[in-house]
Amino acid sequence: MPFLVKAGLVELALGGLSGWLVVITLERPEWLRRARVQHPPRLRQAHLDWIMMGTILVAVGAAVPGIPDVIAALVVFGAYVNPALFLPLAFDADTAGRAAFRALTAVSFLAMSGGLTALAVHGLTR
Question: Distance between CA 55 and CA 61 in Å, rounded?
Fold first, then answer.
């Protein structure tokens, strides 16, 4: 099984498990308040993004043979980090303005967009 497919299946599992956070948001919001979650909708965003990114990894991993390791690494890095960026925002919206967060966001978005572009070029030129 290709690496991207395996990474996507793991991310889909993470997305499925994170669905419990959505249930807690609806059924036990006091648990989130005790955990100092200030913006519960960010948990739903992470949940949905993990599922979408996992689906992308499975799809491109299955559709494009022989993906170079550097392209696979870029895409997996972006697919895992992008959804995780919602988590600190669930606790503190001001995190979005911090230099380290902004830098990690830029690197993650560049990895995902650049990796997917390189993947498309690789797939179309084979």
Answer: 10
- Tell which residue, 36, 50, 43, 37, has the closest CA to residue 22: 43
Single pTM value for the model: 0.91
Ramachandran category for residue 95: left, alpha or beta (phi over 0 → left; psi -120 to 50 → alpha):
alpha
36: left (phi over 0), alpha (psi -120 to 50) or beta: left
Tell me how many helices (H) and strands (E) the chain has: 6, 0
> Please, is 6 exposed, middle or buried when counting C-beta atoms within 10 Å of its C-beta (0-12, 13-18, 19+)?
middle
Look up tokens 């290709």; give the residue.
2
CB 77 within 8 A of CB 41: no
Phi, psi of 40 (to 5 degrees): -55, -30
pLDDT in tens, 35-86: 999 999 999 999 999 999 999 999 999 999 899 999 999 999 999 999 999 9
The CA distances from residue 49 to 42, 69, 79, in Å, are 10, 23, 9
Q: Is the dihedral of CA 102, 45, 74, 76 positive or negative?
A: positive
